[in-house]
């Protein structure tokens, strides 16, 4: 049996794939996702760093305090050793002898062993070493520095010992006559910083252990408390969630504004700033200080839920929805969304106009059908003279209505609307008249379109309001006063109910049953047109209801 053939290229490819897998596995172990610490880990690391810093400071203070203690205690002891050595009778008698080095050596050795000093020296009054625990110093001159031992006084201080700091005690050696015959010097080197840290290590280790234990326990408790408050989210997750929330709020077309229980703005997105014409620095300011429309201010500070509240803000029709916000069952304020429905209202106006035209055509069709039925009956009865008389009467009546309107209203669209509305009023049993002093010049196409919308809505409302009266009547008056168009529509209906004067301009408000196209959009639309054109609309409910509209006109002489 032949051995299998091994493909070198295949083996190399397998080796490469294995190497790549191992590299990816190692990289995953060190990836930022794996290295990211939890909240408890971050607190633990922070507290351990704090504990380490505190221990470092404590260690430095301990070294400093140990140095001061060593200088005080050992300095006093070195002075005592020097004084003890200076008072030994053998020292005082042998210091002037022929061989002081060997004669004084036993006393120096005994003082060295009893005191723990690193060096004991006896010198003559000039500072020349006569005998020392370090034989190399014999014959050398000691630098006494600021020591006052030559004056017969003991001294304690720091000296340099071959590059090492040491604490030394000096004492004068006096003979029986009180004359200075020598100097007794005992000194001990300061321990190194490492030695001092080693001596303090047990206490530092105890402090470190207790601090680390308290740090771990405190970190876990604090992390658990914070995670409970943050609903179990880690800091990175909270930051990501906040970034997503911020991006979402500023990307949606609807305006969003949040108000706290103290009446201050806590959050607002770009769309809300645009819709309410707010500055960039409104967050943290009270709503009452933002110079908003009074209705908007009242809605934002009400603190109660509301749905589809319509407010006219400048030239915009805004729809507000408000919900209360809470955290752990405690109210924290409200969140209000707003949408611009100006275009929708305009479309509803067009639909309402189309429906009005449909009603007008239906009324005229009904009127003409009745007249045709009468003519048909007269023809069947062969009353041709009556037919002629009826047709003449109808023609004259229509011509009179047309002449009455067109002689005072120069704008064709408005004139045609009033003529058509007369048929609607007649069908409803309402008398629609144009006051004799009414005058209206020709208008631009935009002005004519807006005015027909205003007239159509006000006349429709007036007809509906007074049709149940014994002698219902609607009077339309229009004239130009100082480049401003003044329009008044009066009806002898029951008037506006008490407390509803402001509500009639709110979209959706109506005292009539709902029909196709919606109710309660006519008067808000009239107010919107007046606001957009810089005009006004007012209402007077004395002796019925009178709506007065004032609109500025372009190119009309005063």
TrEMBL record:
Catalytic activities: ATP + protein L-histidine = ADP + protein N-phospho-L-histidine
Main localization (coarse): membrane
SMART domains per the UniProt record, alphabetical: HATPase_c, PAS
Histidine kinase domain location: 363-555
Subcellular location: Cell membrane
E.C. number: 2.7.13.3
Transmembrane segments: 43-63, 204-223
Keyword Protein biosynthesis: no
Enzyme class per UniProt: transferase
Keywords: ATP-binding, Cell membrane, Kinase, Membrane, Nucleotide-binding, Phosphoprotein, Transferase, Transmembrane, Transmembrane helix, Two-component regulatory system
Gene Ontology MF terms: ATP binding; phosphorelay sensor kinase activity
Cellular component terms per the entry's GO annotation: plasma membrane
PROSITE patterns: HIS_KIN (PS50109)
A family per Pfam: HATPase_c
Keyword Phosphoprotein among UniProt keywords: yes
Bilayer topology: Multi-pass membrane protein
UniProt name for this protein: histidine kinase
């Amino acid at each position: 049996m032949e051995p299998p053939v091994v493909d070198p290229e295949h083996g190399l490819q397998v080796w490469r794939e294995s190497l790549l897998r191992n590299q990816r596995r190692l990289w995953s172990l060190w990836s930022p996702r794996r290295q990211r610490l939890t909240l408890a880990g971050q607190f633990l690391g922070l507290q351990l760093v704090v504990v380490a810093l505190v221990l470092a400071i404590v260690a430095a203070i301990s070294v400093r305090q140990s140095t001061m203690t060593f200088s005080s205690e050992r300095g006093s002891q070195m002075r005592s050793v020097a004084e003890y050595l200076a008072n030994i009778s053998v020292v005082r008698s042998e210091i002037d002898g022929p061989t002081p080095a060997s004669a004084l050596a036993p006393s120096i050795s005994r003082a060295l062993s009893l005191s723990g000093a690193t060096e004991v020296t006896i010198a003559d009054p000039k500072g020349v070493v006569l005998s020392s625990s370090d034989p190399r110093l014999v014959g050398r001159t000691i630098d006494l520095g600021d020591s006052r031992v030559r004056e017969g006084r003991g001294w304690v201080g720091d000296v340099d010992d071959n590059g090492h700091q040491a604490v030394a005690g000096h004492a004068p050696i006096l003979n029986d006559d009180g004359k200075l015959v020598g100097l007794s010097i005992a000194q001990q080197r300061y321990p190194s910083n490492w030695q001092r840290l080693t001596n303090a290590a047990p206490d530092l280790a105890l402090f470190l252990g207790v601090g680390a234990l308290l740090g771990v326990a405190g970190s876990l408790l604090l992390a658990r408390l914070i995670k409970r408050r943050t609903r179990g989210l880690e800091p990175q997750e909270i930051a990501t969630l906040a970034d997503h929330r911020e991006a979402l709020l500023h990307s949606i077309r609807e305006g969003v504004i949040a108000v706290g229980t103290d009446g201050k703005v806590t959050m607002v997105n770009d769309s809300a700033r645009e819709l309410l014409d707010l500055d960039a620095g409104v967050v943290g300011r009270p709503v009452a200080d933002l110079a908003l429309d009074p209705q908007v201010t009242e809605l934002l500070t009400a603190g109660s839920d509301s749905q589809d509240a319509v407010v006219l803000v400048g030239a915009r029709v805004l729809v507000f929805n408000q919900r209360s916000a809470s955290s752990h069952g405690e109210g924290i304020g409200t969140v209000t969304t707003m949408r611009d429905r100006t275009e929708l209202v305009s479309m509803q106006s067009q639909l309402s106009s189309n429906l009005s035209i449909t009603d007008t055509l239906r009324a005229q069709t009904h009127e003409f059908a009745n007249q045709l039925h009468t003519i048909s009956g007269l023809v069947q009865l062969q009353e041709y003279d009556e037919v002629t008389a009826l047709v003449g009467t109808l023609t004259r009546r229509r011509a009179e209505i047309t002449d009455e309107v067109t002689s005072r209203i120069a704008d064709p669209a408005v004139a045609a609307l009033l003529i058509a509305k007369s048929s609607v009023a007649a069908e409803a049993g309402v008398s629609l008249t144009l006051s004799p002093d009414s005058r209206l010049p020709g208008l631009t196409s935009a002005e004519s379109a807006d005015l027909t919308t205003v007239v159509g809505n006000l006349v429709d409302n007036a007809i509906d309001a007074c049709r149940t009266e014994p002698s219902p009547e609607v009077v339309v008056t229009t004239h130009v006063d100082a480049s401003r168009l003044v329009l008044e529509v009066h009806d002898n209906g029951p008037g506006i109910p008490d407390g509803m004067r402001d509500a009639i301009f709110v979209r959706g408000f109506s005292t009539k049953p709902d029909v196709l196209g919606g109710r309660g959009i006519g008067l808000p639309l009239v107010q919107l047109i007046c606001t957009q054109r810089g005009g006004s609309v007012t209402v007077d409910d004395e002796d019925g209801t009178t709506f007065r509209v004032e609109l500025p006109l372009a190119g009309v002489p005063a």
